[in-house]
User: Which sequence fits this backbone?
């Protein structure tokens, strides 16, 4: 394999020498230019895979050069280097298409680490393209997230870009698509990785308790408040707070949340004292917050704040490439869990999985394979080893009623099936669905799908 081509642009020749020396021995060829014009010219001429770009240069700013490179070829990974790092400018650069943002003086270790991560990502893409369609691709995991199709590789690239810089981020996608895993990866790759990762399930907390849950309360703030208690923001100090199912949060709590996020300051209920915190916030939801904001059921200002940086997980039915690797991953995991030898899928079983519409996404796939791994008595899994709910819902493609259902309907449909599969046990169904009682009831109350 040829080394990855890299162009470095900086008006200071000494910085260029440093960069080139730092990358010596890495899997890259380095070409240096000390004016933005010459650098841009080199980029347009030789289409490098990576560009290191100084933000402050005479005549043309790095942001201008970035804009031109991104318009020329958005797949070029541009790392900006600046003497004036702020989270806001980093976020803006990444929204503008930069792959990364480093501050001067550049730490050689950090530069190598980031370039290595990008080179790894480029190599994986090449690998996926050369084995496209085949099952031969190696099992690739990005911080515990399995995937090899272009959609997930994009998600991984985005998480890698965002994690070092974000203060707030939004992770969206249908139920069971892996939002929680992505939120954890954002934390694990952030500078706060050694700090706490605190989860708040907004759907599980009664509207009246939300504020004390998030911000804590002072002794005597209300009946039963017998002592001071810190809230989740304080627990998450110097770490990350995951606000799961943020779409379920009441408007009043949203207003206070926005203030806490913006000011990095919280006030316990019943106490006048403001406390400084340092918390990254990741919000997750299967809902369309933009639509909710226009309908007035979600605060627009909070949506704009959270939605500045969004990671979108596509439904599993749109990532066929991932089904074989996810299957392999879950079969191995559950075989190990049950102390059985790892099984493989027959061709017919694999076809059935590829055709299924997966309304419950990866969580549903995991359930089907966990069941099959337990039930199969041979080493080869056949469609007959899949749970009845799965086989019953696999009509030939094109006639599948599921393909004509809205996400809301699919969720209600899936919730009812899970509840039936759990023998009517609501608690078990809540656990399987990963939702609160309130959400389960809401789902069960939703309209029956017209198509089934
Ligand atoms: N790409 C993946 N690789 C491995 N496991 C995955 C992947 N995506 C999801 N899973 C697994 O599927 C299950 C559901 O994932 P997760 O809890 O992250 O979904 P979610 O998007 O948060 O769903 P919900 O909206 O219902 O909360 C988990 O057991 C998770 O480990
Ligand atoms: Mg979740």
Assistant:
């Amino acid at each position: 394999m040829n080394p990855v081509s890299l162009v470095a642009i900086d008006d200071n020749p000494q910085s260029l020498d440093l960069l080139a020396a730092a990358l010596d021995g890495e899997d890259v060829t380095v070409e240096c230019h000390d004016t933005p014009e010459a650098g841009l010219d080199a980029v347009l001429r030789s289409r490098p895979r990576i560009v290191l770009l100084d933000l402050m240069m005479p005549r043309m700013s790095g942001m201008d050069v970035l804009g031109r490179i991104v318009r020329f070829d958005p797949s070029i990974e541009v790392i900006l280097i600046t003497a004036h790092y702020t989270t806001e400018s980093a976020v803006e650069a990444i929204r503008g298409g930069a792959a990364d943002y480093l501050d001067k003086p550049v730490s050689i270790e950090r530069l190598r680490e980031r370039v290595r991560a990008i080179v790894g990502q480029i190599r994986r893409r090449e690998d996926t393209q050369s084995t496209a369609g085949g099952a031969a691709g190696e099992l690739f995991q990005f911080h515990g997230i399995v995937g090899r199709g272009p959609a997930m590789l994009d998600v991984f690239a985005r998480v890698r870009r965002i994690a070092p810089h974000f203060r707030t981020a939004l992770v969206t996608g249908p139920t069971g698509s892996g939002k929680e895993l992505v939120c954890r990866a954002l934390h694990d790759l952030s500078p706060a990785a050694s700090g706490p990762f605190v989860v708040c399930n907004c759907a599980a907390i009664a509207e009246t308790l939300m504020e004390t849950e998030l911000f804590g309360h002072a002794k005597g703030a209300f009946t039963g408040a017998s002592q001071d208690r810190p809230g989740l923001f304080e627990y998450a100090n110097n770490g990350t707070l995951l606000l799961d199912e943020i779409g379920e949060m009441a408007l009043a709590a949203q207003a206070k949340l926005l203030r806490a996020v913006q000011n990095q300051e919280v006030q316990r209920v019943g106490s006048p004292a403001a406390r400084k915190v340092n918390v990254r916030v990741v919000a997750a939801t299967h809902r369309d917050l933009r639509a909710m904001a226009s309908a007035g059921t979600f605060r627009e200002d909070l949506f704009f704040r959270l939605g500045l940086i969004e990671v979108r997980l596509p439904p599993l039915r749109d990532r066929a490439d991932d089904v074989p690797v996810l299957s392999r991953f879950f079969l191995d995991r559950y075989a190990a869990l049950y102390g059985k030898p790892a099984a493989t899928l027959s061709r017919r079983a694999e076809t059935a999985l590829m055709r299924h519409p997966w309304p419950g996404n990866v969580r549903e796939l995991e359930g089907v394979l966990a069941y099959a791994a337990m039930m199969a008595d041979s080493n080869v899994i056949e469609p007959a080893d899949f749970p009845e709910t799965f086989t019953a819902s696999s009509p030939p493609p094109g006639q599948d009623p599921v393909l004509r259902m809205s996400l809301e309907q699919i969720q209600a449909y899936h919730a009812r099936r899970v509840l039936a599969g759990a023998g009517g046990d609501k608690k078990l169904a809540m656990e399987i669905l990963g939702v609160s009682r309130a959400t389960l009831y809401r789902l069960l109350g939703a309209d029956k799908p017209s198509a089934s």
